[in-house]
């Protein structure tokens, strides 16, 4: 079944108007976003890239679920492109007081906020809102339930491309609570579109393992020591406790022993394998602290790439809006 977001996110000419899902994006579209993101990357210590691609725009961050990296990263990205940015505190927002999300959106729209960045625990909100906003307003999905986190998928792909070059030769392991992870789903979508050689998904049991139809073609493993053999990339994922009942949450130390990415296990991957984690990390649960801080870790690079990727997405979407205006 095609994701509704994949259809809704395009305008009548087929240009990306919103970014709700990575499903349906072509290899060319993804490559263009990654190339633009690479253009915005600066080495540590240098002044960050800036331009005025978003001058005159107002970006509103609406996060109904907690976020540190993604929210701050969207905020910094929008500011570096010359936009005005507002952050709404959705924990104390009107939704709590009973106002519908759409009323909040219409209020922001009336104030000329034209790019809305949204995160929500329920599936479907970004696509729903995208169907109701004015034609010049864009919705960017910053995390939707367990389903989709498109900018995370793009920053992961950019990081792997920087470190490994030709993706068609790369073997990627995604390990941990895959069943509840939007990061895993978006990574799978972008990496398969880019033609990665192999994706292995590893979860310790059936509960944390997704249904096969969600990751068609991926190699499935429950034994982490087998799954990690010879891979180029190890992506560790957090246990998404917020999507489980307390009875379902695994014991942390038993989980670490059985499934955590430790130095000993990492030695079974290729010697030049990189270690990734989307954050927030639970040190010594899904990933050993010395692995997270070790020489193979690219976790801080992922964070830096997050800003560049969000700048690229914002600039691409606003360019498409301008292009549409010229023909109206
Ligand atoms: N920050 C990522 C997300 O929003 C991963 C995580 O929360 O574990 O999905």
The CATH superfamily of the largest domain bears the name Aspartate/ornithine carbamoyltransferase
Q: Topology as H/E string? A: HHEHEHHEHEHEHEEHEHHEHH
Contiguous low-pLDDT stretches (5 residues minimum) are none
Fraction of residues in H or I helices: 25-40%
Structural class: alpha/beta
Rounded mean pLDDT score: 94
Strand arrangement, largest sheet?
7-6-5-8-9
Strand composition percent: 5-15%
CATH topology of the largest domain: Rossmann fold
Q: Report the span from N to C terminus.
A: 33 Å
In CATH's first tier, which class of the largest domain applies? Alpha Beta
Assign an overall shape. Answer: globular
Sheet bearing the most strands, described? 5 strands, parallel
- Strand elements, count: 9
CATH architecture of the largest domain: 3-Layer(aba) Sandwich
Number of helices: 13
Overall number of domains: 2
- From the alpha-carbon coordinates, what is the Rg to the nearest angstrom? 19 Å
Q: What is bound: which ligands? A: aspartic acid
List the helices and strands and how they pair.
Elements: H1 4-8, H2 27-40, E1 58-63, H3 69-80, E2 84-88, H4 94-97, H5 101-110, E3 115-120, H6 125-130, E4 138-144, H7 150-164, E5 171-175, H8 182-193, E6 198-202, E7 219-221, H9 224-227, E8 233-236, H10 252-259, H11 263-266, E9 274-276, H12 289-292, H13 299-326
Parallel strand pairs: 1-2, 1-3, 3-4, 5-6, 5-8, 6-7, 8-9
Helix pairs in contact: 2-7, 2-13, 3-13, 7-8, 7-13
Bound molecules: aspartic acid.
């Amino acid at each position: 079944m095609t994701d509704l977001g994949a259809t809704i996110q395009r305008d009548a000419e087929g240009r990306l108007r919103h970014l709700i899902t990575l499903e349906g994006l072509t290899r060319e579209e993804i490559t263009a976003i990654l190339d633009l993101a690479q253009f915005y990357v600066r080495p540590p210590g240098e002044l960050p890239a800036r331009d005025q691609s978003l001058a005159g725009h107002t970006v509103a961050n609406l996060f109904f679920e907690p976020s540190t990296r993604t929210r701050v990263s969207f905020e910094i990205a929008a500011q570096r492109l010359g936009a005005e940015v507002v952050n709404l505190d959705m924990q104390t927002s009107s939704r709590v007081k009973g106002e519908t999300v759409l009323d909040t959106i219409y209020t922001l729209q009336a104030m000329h906020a034209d790019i809305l960045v949204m995160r929500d625990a329920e599936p479907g909100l970004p696509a729903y809102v995208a169907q109701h906003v004015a034609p010049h307003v864009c919705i960017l999905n910053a995390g939707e339930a367990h389903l989709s986190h498109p900018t995370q998928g793009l920053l992961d792909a950019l990081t792997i491309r920087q470190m490994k070059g030709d993706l068609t030769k790369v073997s990627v392991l995604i390990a941990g609570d895959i069943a509840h992870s939007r990061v895993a789903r978006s990574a799978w979508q972008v990496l398969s579109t880019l033609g990665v050689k192999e994706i292995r998904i590893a979860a310790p049991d059936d509960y944390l393992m997704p249904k096969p139809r969600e990751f068609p073609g991926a190699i499935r493993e429950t034994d982490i020591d087998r799954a990690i053999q010879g891979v180029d990339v190890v992506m560790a994922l957090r246990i998404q406790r917020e999507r489980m009942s307390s009875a379902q949450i695994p014991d942390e130390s038993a989980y670490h022993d059985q499934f955590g990415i430790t130095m000993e296990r990492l030695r079974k991957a290729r010697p030049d394998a990189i270690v990734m984690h989307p954050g927030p990390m639970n040190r010594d649960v899904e990933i050993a602290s010395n692995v997270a801080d070790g020489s193979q870790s690219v976790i801080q690079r992922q964070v830096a790439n997050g800003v560049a990727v969000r700048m690229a997405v914002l600039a691409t979407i606003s360019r498409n809006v301008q292009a549409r205006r010229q023909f109206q």
